[in-house]
Amino acid sequence: MQAGRSVLDKVQAVFAYGTLRGDWGATGDRWGVIRDTNAAWCRASVKGFSLYQRSDLFYPFAVQTENPDNVIHGTLLVWPDAETARRAIKMCDQIEGFDENLPLEGLYRRAVVEVAVPAEAMKLACERGLLESHAQPSELSHFRSEGGREQGTPKLSAYIYHQEMPQLDSGAMLLSFPHGDWLHQRAS
């Protein structure tokens, strides 16, 4: 799911499935990105990825499968303006060990995905002006009929951080999250 530079410049949201999730804790994500950048978030999902965690680490990772039956659940992080979004995405890049100048060298890769967002959350974000700078009318029109009624699930372009399937060291196990929700399955 690589994208040309013009698309990358327009992406101003992050899909988070692990410690960057908006519902990770009472104050948002583990790292304070939401708090420090005044981000808004809603629950969302992405197709084409599977979710795993090494038993010796505290965080999960997504692996791109391109199989639409593989779905992961998390939160979509959005920001009130383009400049704040750029700053927040740089913070996320740093947390995830991603360098856009060396995109294949860090811990995580970064890709652009279409995130399925509940229609009510999308509507609320639009009403509050949170999506003005990156939700174009064409992106929103596919879930509205001519009468303004919702059809299907709206989608928004966002970055996702993912890894290649790792080679495990001796002693480490790979945990799988077949239902695609690390936080929910971790808590149960």
Kindly list the characteristics that best describe this protein:
single chain; 188 residues; alpha+beta; 24% helix; 27% strand; disordered N terminus
- Reading side by side through the largest sheet, how are the strands ordered? 1-5-2
- Total helices: the number is 6
Structural class by sheet pairing and helices: alpha+beta
In what range is the share of β-strand residues?
Answer: 25-35%
Terminal Cα span: 32 Å
Q: Name the average pLDDT.
A: 82
How big is the Rg?
A: 16 Å
Shape type: globular
Helix share, percent: 10-25%
Question: Any low-confidence stretches, pLDDT <50, length ≥5?
Answer: 1-8, 132-150
What order do the helices and strands follow?
HEHEEEEHEHHEEH
Count of extended strands: 8
Please give the largest β-sheet: 3 strands, antiparallel
Structure description:
- The protein has 188 residues and is α+β, with helices and mostly antiparallel strands.
- The chain is 24% helix and 27% strand.
- It is built from 6 helices and 8 strands; from the N terminus they run αβαββββαβααββα.
- It has helices spanning 5-10, 33-37, 82-96, 119-127, 137-141, 182-187, and strands at 13-16, 40-47, 49-54, 60-64, 71-78, 109-116, 155-162, 174-176.
- The protein has a 3-stranded antiparallel β-sheet with strand order 1-5-2. Strands 4-3-8 form a 3-stranded antiparallel β-sheet, with no helix packed on it.
- A hairpin with a 5-residue loop joins strand 3 and strand 4.
- It is globular, with a radius of gyration of 16 Å.
- The two termini are 32 Å apart.
